[in-house]
Structure formats: structure tokens, C-alpha cells
Write a structure and sequence with these properties.
The complex is a heterodimer. Chain A is built from 3 helices and no strands. Chain A is mostly helical. The radius of gyration of chain A is 17 Å and the shape is elongated. Chain B has 2 domains: 77 residues, NADH-ubiquinone/plastoquinone oxidoreductase chain 6, subunit NuoJ (Four Helix Bundle (Hemerythrin (Met), subunit A)), CATH 1.20.120.1200; 41 residues. Classes of the chains: A mainly alpha, B mainly alpha. At the A-B interface, α1, α2 and α3 of A face α1, α2, α3, α4 and α5 of B.
Chain lengths: 102, 166
């Protein structure tokens, strides 16, 4: 049997890689992909905790379904914003879209 | 024993693919690595005996989300012929610092805490139980998430459509 700590360390690695990607990348789509990594790490954590610690064992799966739903909505909206940005500015780099930066 | 070996293979695949997503020089390679990473997490759900969630993961992330991301990448190629732009910003050392400190803290917390694990591991989670709880206790969030999806759909159409005079 695989102990719970293995899942926790795995999702910690995934989440940290996602944070690094969000901070380091310039392209908005790449940032979005890193956010997806972070969301996946979190839902893996939810399911692992529920399977190992919760006597109910079902809540983790339900939480993960809701995370996936919100992530799908978020990806659709964010990519629409990226396409709109590209149409207006001919770039999808977030550091070039700085007209609202003070 | 065989389960553990398989688990380590899939865990290594997930870590490798996730590192590929954030360290790859080419955006298309990142998207391909993302498919691998999502599929690996789906395999992890199988290890945790939530096969329904694994199917959802393969379908939505492996299918829909990555196709959407690949389409957006291809629609926003700014310089398809010229020299490749740098994919990372000047804040790269800071991002490395934050990533490394976060991974240290999270791994230390995960290993040092006594989780009170009963030691029996994941039991089989029947899909009927999930659906019963989903439609009884979580009925209101379920309906709200459908409203969220509808709003996101309409919003994405309005944002991405070609306006007159453009």
C-alpha cells in the first residue's frame, strides 16, 4: 500500500512547479497551464486526504468534481481574454499588456 | 508490491511532465507535456480507487482543456517565422526562489505531521455513493456550478467574438 505522505509530496512538487511557472512565464497561455497544474495538485490532495483519513471517503471526489468544473469555466474565459488581448495588442505576453500598470 | 512499483513509475512521469510544462522552451511542447501530466493525475485517481474521477480527468483535462489550450496557442502565435521570443521574464530568479522555498516548506510539513492515518488505505468508492451525495447534500452547489458554466460560456462568446468595425 502506498502511504498518504507519497501523495502529499507528489502534489506538493506539482503545486510548487505550478507556482514557479506562474511567476516565471511571460506568455499568458503558459501561465494558465501552470495554474492548471496547481489546480490538479490541489484536487489530488483532496482525494488523497479523503481516501486515507476521512471515514466518509466520498467528499474528496465531490470536491474534485467541483474543482474540475470551475477549472473548465476558468480556462474557457481566460483563453477568450487571451484571444481578445492578442487581437488588440498583437501579443500574448503579460508584461507587454501593462497599460493599467501604475 | 506491484502497485507500489507502478505508483512510483506514474509519480515519476507526473513530476517529469510537470517539469516539462514549466521548463520547456517551446509553448507547444509545454502543452504536450501538460497532457501527460493530466493523464498521470488521472492514473493517481485510479490508485485512489476513484475510477469515475479518473474518467472525468481523462475526458475533460486530457481532451477538452488541452485542445482548448492548443487552439489558443495556435491562434496567438505572434512571430511564427522569426526568432523565438524568451519564454521567461526577468523575474526568473525570484520565481525560482519562491518555488524552491515553497517546495521545501510543503514537503517538510507533509512529512513531519502525524496525519493519524488508520493504515487501511483507500477503500473502493462506489460511483453510486458519489452520485447520491452529489445530488442530495451537494444539490445546491451542483445547480450553482451549472449556472457558473452557463455564465462562463456566454462570457467567453462575448469576449472572443468579432465586433462590428473591427
Amino acid at each position: 500500500m502506498v502511504p498518504l505522505e507519497n501523495y502529499l509530496v507528489l502534489s506538493a512538487v506539482m503545486f510548487s512547479l505550478g507556482v514557479y511557472g506562474v511567476l516565471a512565464r511571460r506568455n499568458a497561455v503558459l501561465i494558465l497551464m501552470s495554474v492548471e497544474l496547481m489546480l490538479n495538485a490541489v484536487s489530488l490532495n483532496f482525494v488523497a486526504f479523503a481516501a486515507y483519513l476521512d471515514p466518509d471517503k466520498v467528499l474528496g471526489a465531490i470536491f474534485a468534481v467541483f474543482i474540475i468544473t470551475v477549472a473548465a469555466a476558468e480556462v474557457g474565459l481566460a483563453l477568450a481574454i487571451v484571444i481578445r488581448l492578442f487581437r488588440n495588442r498583437a501579443t500574448s505576453n503579460v508584461d507587454e499588456a501593462a497599460s493599467m500598470k501604475w | 508490491m506491484a502497485t507500489e512499483v507502478l505508483w512510483w513509475i506514474f509519480a515519476a512521469a507526473i513530476v517529469g511532465a510537470s517539469a516539462g510544462v514549466v521548463f520547456s522552451r517551446s509553448v507547444l511542447h509545454s502543452a504536450i507535456f501538460l497532457i501527460g501530466s493530466m493523464a498521470g493525475v488521472g492514473a493517481m485517481y485510479v490508485f485512489l480507487t476513484v475510477e469515475f474521477l479518473a474518467l472525468v480527468q481523462f475526458l475533460i483535462y486530457g481532451g477538452a482543456v488541452t485542445v482548448l489550450i492548443l487552439l489558443a496557442l495556435m491562434l496567438t502565435r505572434s512571430d511564427p517565422t522569426g526568432r523565438p521570443e524568451p519564454v521567461n521574464g526577468p523575474q526568473l530568479p525570484f520565481a525560482l526562489l519562491v518555488g524552491i522555498s515553497l517546495i521545501t516548506i510543503l514537503v517538510a510539513v507533509a512529512l513531519d505531521t502525524a496525519w493519524g492515518d488508520s493504515g487501511e488505505g483507500p477503500a473502493n468508492i462506489a460511483i453510486e455513493t458519489v452520485s447520491e451525495r452529489m445530488f442530495s447534500d451537494f444539490g445546491v452547489p451542483f445547480v450553482l456550478s451549472s449556472v457558473l458554466l452557463l455564465v462562463a460560456l456566454i462570457g467567453a462568446i462575448i469576449l472572443a467574438r468579432q465586433e462590428e468595425g473591427e
